[in-house]
Amino acid sequence: MTDLLLIAGVDEAGRGPLAGPVAAAAVILDPARPIVGLADSKRLSAMKRERLAGEIRDRALAWALGWADVAEIDRINILQASLLAMRRAVGGLAIAPERALIDGNRCPLLACACQAIVRGDATVPAISAASILAKVARDAKMRELHQRYPHYQFARHKGYPTAIHLEALRRYGPCAEHRRSFAPVAALQQLALVEAPA
Predict the structure, then answer these.
(1) Is residue 196 part of a domain?
(2) 111 in the same domain as 129
(3) Average pLDDT over residues 37-64
């Protein structure tokens, strides 16, 4: 293992939604334990993502998740919050990588060398693995939020601006998990804050 260049793939999930945190994952794959079927998480079914996520957690040399919550998103903007979540994911790895490959065109500030790769989630296996872990983790978080705020149907749309979600926003106003810096939510600021039931 001393001759192995430790490269972490890094990706995020949840930049576009109107609600919930942004998640990131960092994964160092084990060349001796390849995982078949890695791809951009958006191109995989939920069932296949869940199966691959289990394989990644079992076979990777190291993996970690990082999060940025709604308050951080509203305070520093979604791009900076995504980079923060990525930095937290890389920092959480049990093995320090020598290099990080980041999906997209911006790199977070890291202790190791890093390279941004546009569409890396579709072309670099370690980034694909990170995209899968981040997506699976964030979807699970949105299902948890659905239990607290069932009228928004977060389990169904995961916070994205679907017609159902926008209609619920108009009807109930934003809840504590909505991103007030996002235009569709900001437009409804005058409506009463919907609190989670005790």
Answers:
(1) no
(2) yes
(3) 96
